[in-house]
Amino acid sequence: MENPYRLLIVIITTLVIMILVFYRAESKRYTVGDGEGWDIGTNYMAWAQPHNFTVGDVLVFKYVKGQHNAYQVSKEVYRSCDVGNGSASAGVLKKYETGSDEVVLGEARDYWFICSFQGHCLGGMKFGLNVTLDLIAPPNTTDDGVTNNVSNSGRGRGRGGGAENNNFWALWAVLLLANLALFFW
């Protein structure tokens, strides 16, 4: 007798494979400031604006240790550039100080980063971004200085929309058809 749960097993297997393949294929690494790295003089909001940051992406901060750092902070600290005593209660969520730091964007939410060295944040060494699960929405910058994944034009840029989105559905269809063929074979 046939297993009545065979189709369910095929569908679940397809979904798991798709999630694993798509998640790994879509995660990107971004060096903050590109070739300039994390340093004074780079417009980090302009750097972040064209990117579509999604869960699983990695930010790489490259800088001279002892001359800069990268602090993940609250929105209030981002706006004021005042880290107080540097504690979590002062709004410092995480400190990166090695000179080559990797930050995994593990949640869909807003992130804010600054350099806490005297005058660096006030001099523009800071940026905010919004990380989403949505792979279709393009980025745009809000008045808060956070790269937001909403556009007035509605057209996709970066990873969302276009060929990448079509590739996702093509891969999904092929895997589903292959599993269904195995089911009915």
Automatic annotation (TrEMBL):
CDD domains with a match to the protein in the record: Phytocyanin (cd04216)
Membrane spanning stretches: 6-23, 167-184
Keyword rRNA-binding carried by entry: no
GO (cellular component) term, any one: plasma membrane
Superkingdom as given in the UniProt entry: Eukaryota
Keywords: Copper, Disulfide bond, Electron transport, Glycoprotein, Membrane, Metal-binding, Signal, Transmembrane, Transmembrane helix, Transport
MF term (GO), any: metal ion binding
Entry-linked InterPro entries: Cupredoxin, Phytocyanin-like, Phytocyanin_dom
Coarse class of the protein's main subcellular location: membrane
Listed Pfam families: Cu_bind_like
Membrane-related topology note: Single-pass type I membrane protein
Cellular location(s): Membrane
Residues in Phytocyanin domain copies: 28-133
Keyword match Signal: yes
GO terms under biological process: response to symbiotic fungus
Name of the protein in its database record: Phytocyanin domain-containing protein
Species assigned in the record: Stephania cephalantha
